[in-house]
Design goal:
This protein is of the alpha+beta class. The protein has eight helices and eight strands, in the order αααββαβαββααβαββ. The protein has two domains: about 60 residues, Orthogonal Bundle (Arc Repressor Mutant, subunit A), CATH 1.10.10.10; about 150 residues, Chorismate lyase-like (Chorismate lyase, 3-Layer(aba) Sandwich), CATH 3.40.1410.10. Helices cover about 30% and strands about 25% of the residues. It has a six-stranded antiparallel β-sheet with strand order 3-4-5-8-7-6. A hairpin with a 5-residue loop joins strand 7 and strand 8. Helix 1 packs across helix 3 and helix 2 packs across helix 3. The protein starts with 10 loop residues before the first helix and ends in a 15-residue tail after the last strand. It comes from Cupriavidus numazuensis.
Amino acid sequence: MLSNQMSKTNSAEIARQLLDGIASGRFAVGSLLPTEFELCEQFNASRYTIRAVLQALQDQGLVSRRKNVGTRVEASRPQARFRPTLASVDDLVQFGVEHSRHVQSVETVKVPGDLAREIGCAEGTPLLRISSIRVDEGLADAPMAWTDIYIDPAYKDIGERVRNSTELVSTLIESRYGRQIAEIEQDVRASTLSDERVEKGLGLEHGAAVLKISRRYLDAAGEAFEYSVTVHPADSFSLSMRLKRSAG
């Protein structure tokens, strides 16, 4: 039973109690939360406050709301949903900085044929692979993505630095070796999960639907010096763009 002895409980406390109830199973997945009116009574809160809290839970993928049905619990933990709007290299760099990186491994690998074609290098090329999980600090228990970054083994010191730095790999390469991103080639496509490392890291099942983003980072001479393959759970990513009619 939710506490109804509080006077004017603030929205953060209401959200915390609802989150605790969902996480503990008191409000089981598939069940309905109390109505807005009931929540207003229990928390001595305004309908505006309750609606704002429920909207925040919906934004996290925890609940869905339908008129004449109510607020249904959809998940027991927040879903890391985000919608980047990227218009330039600087936007992409800033997006990376705003989401924390948890490095999983740093090792030299020989790139297999399918991946070599994907990132545009020769099969068997030895590259330093930096594998990490990206998370939103507000939803630390819900990984947003798994990223494998591939760079020349000559940059092995970057692999050592990345463990103790919040800077992007490309930024570390620029500051250490002077190679700056001038252009990024990006490919986005639907895929299914077949890598045990990624399955474990993202908490997904084998064969789960994912969105895969491959990027080639080019310097001013048009030469690629970094490759990345990022895997997002299919229901946690959307990409926004704005297209303008060209003049003339």
